Amino acid sequence: MIAPDDLAFQLVDSFASAPASPRTEAAPWRAAPPAPLGPAVEVGQEPDPGAPRLDLAATLQTRRANRVWSPEPLPAPLLADIIGEGVEADVEEWPDEQPYTPLEITVVAFRVTGLAPAVHHFDGLTRTARPVMELPPPEQRRSLTLQAEFGDAPAIVSVAVDLRTAEARDGGHGYRTLLTRTGAAVHTMWLAGVSHGLTGSAFAGFIPAAVRTPLRTDGTSRQQVFALALGYPPAAPPGGESAAP
Ligand SMILES: Cc1cc2nc3c(=O)[nH]c(=O)nc-3n(C[C@H](O)[C@H](O)[C@H](O)COP(=O)(O)O)c2cc1C
Predict the structure, then answer these.
(1) Mean pLDDT throughout 129-152?
(2) What are the respective helix, strand and coil percentages of the chain, to the nearest 5?
(3) Is the model's pLDDT at 22 over the cut of 60?
């Protein structure tokens, strides 16, 4: 039987001896965006009617990953504010990367008032949502993610990146940069959500096979890398602690 490290060395050798693939301009490599299912809608700008925001220290003390939610829907303007904070932070911190590798936001709106129940392409700067994929039927609602419970969240925000362009521009460092940017953006969104009284968890994202065709995630020019499940916390059971684990 071949030892695992021999197998790894064989793979490295065969990659090293493979002819270099010619590099072309990055733009033509990009998979076409997912086909729109309906018109783009601007998500409302009305102020969040909820409780005042926690400050950063209280937010950090409160934050805890959670995978159980209230059935209550999320208001679309609040979700748009939260997504916008993550995207705007990325634009501020990484301005030179934006023309080449903008973060692509996809929102699975299971229960979002003001957004049709569908998977939307979401522009965090213009606050525009465009449906690009129908939701799976209710009996398969939990089929988009490996851990079924993320399918119970009112909303999943997923970030996709263009690995191919990043690799062409910066090699392996391009991949590391995209992971850093995506992690920062998702955690900015998560902390923004916690500061507004929401709960949820950052997680690995969609099952690739579930979104490959409808969202045109070819694994290179469009790859979903990180996600956030968000919603209101479940009500505390009568006379007890919060039902969250
Ligand atoms: C890159 C990354 C991917 C993750 N993927 C998952 C995941 O798929 N499922 C999951 O339950 N937790 C995942 N987590 C962990 C949760 O986000 C969370 O950090 C963990 O449950 C610990 O909870 P805490 O942050 O409250 O300590 C991931 C974390 C990171 C940084």
Answers:
(1) 88
(2) 40, 20, 45
(3) no
Q: Please check whether residue 57 is in contact with residue 155, taking contact to mean a CB–CB distance below 8 angstroms.
A: no
CA of 44 to the centre of ligand 1 (A): 31
Give CA–CA dist 169/130, Å, rounded: 29
Q: Is the pLDDT of residue 110 over 80?
A: yes
Q: Is 202 in the pocket of ligand 1 (CB under 6 A)?
A: yes
CA separation for the pair 171, 175 (Å, rounded) = 7
Distance CA 112, CA 85 (A): 18
Q: Which of 145, 157, 203 to mutate to test the pocket of ligand 1 (most atoms within 8 A of CB)?
A: 203
pLDDT of 39 strictly over 60: yes
pLDDT the model gives residue 168 = 92
Answer whether 64 contacts ligand 1 (Cβ < 6 A).
Answer: yes
In order of their start, the domains of the chain are 54-231 (3.40.109.10)
pLDDT at 6: 81
Going by alpha carbons, the residue nearest to atom 30 of ligand 1 is: 203
CB of 8 closer than 6 angstroms to any ligand 1 atom: no
Mean per-residue pLDDT, 20-41 = 74
Nearest CA to ligand 1 atom 13: 203
pLDDT of residue 2: 75
